[in-house]
Amino acid sequence: MSSLRTSRIRLAGAATTVVLAALSLTACTDGTGVHAESVAASTPTAHTSSPAPAATASTGSGSGSGSAATSAPQAAAGSGTGTGTSKSNAGTPAAKAPASTGRPVTCEGSNTKTVAAPLNRPVNHMLLTVTNTGSRTCYLYSYPAVRFGEAQSVPPVIEDSQPQAVVTLAPGESGYASVSLSATDGSGTNGHTVNSLDVYFHGRSGNESVGKGAHPSLPAKGVYVDDSLKVTYWQQSMDDAVNW
After folding, report:
1. Which is more confident, 174 or 48?
2. Do 134 and 105 touch, CB atoms closer than 8 A?
3. Distance CA 35, CA 26 (A)
4. Helix, strand or coil, per DSSP, at residue 209
5. Helices and strands (H and E) in the chain: how many
6. What is the b/e burial string over 173-182, where b = at least 16 CB atoms within 10 angstroms of the residue's CB?
7. What is the DSSP string of 11-29?
8. How far apart (Å, rounded) are the C-alpha atoms in residues 111 and 133?
9. pLDDT digits (tens, 9 = 90+) for 123-140
10. Total-model pTM
11. Pairing of strands 209-214, 197-202
């Protein structure tokens, strides 16, 4: 009796062992040959990697955000560039406007440069060129009051040379007058050579000398003058000046 019971117990134990083995086999194998321990071990990895899709989504979203972020700095850069440009423009001194001529003044030695040059034609003539070196327009009134050497008086003007309007010189422009130094037919008297020249300027009335005079250089050998010495009125063009 006890033997039978013992056999049943053994049989039952064996059956239990078979069942447990089967269960263990089922539990230990996931059908792919991977043990449950491996699965269990990989489960945390799965959990750890589970955020990966979220990370991917986040990456995708991040790409979108990145684009937006990239766009934002670009926009900011654009704004910065614009601002920078504005600042640059603001920081750069504006180009100076041309100096205002203001109210015209009288041409005289301090705002002009005078050059004296002997001419071959007409013979025995000299050309005076006055250039406005100032910042205002100036008027060349009447005619040049010239003094050669130690002369005590200025030569007369050729009345027929008077222009229709006052010669007006903007900054940088020039006006002209010619000087007849001596008679071409030899009829002049008291001829002599001079080595210096002073040029003075008339005011609006034409009777007074104004401002500083000019002292243009003469040729080293000087120029020959006689009592027929005379000058033209100031002219706007050189051609008009040398016609007399």
Report:
1. 174
2. yes
3. 10
4. strand
5. 4, 11
6. ebbbbbbbbb
7. HHHHHHHHHHHHHHHHHH-
8. 5
9. 999 999 999 999 999 999
10. 0.59
11. antiparallel
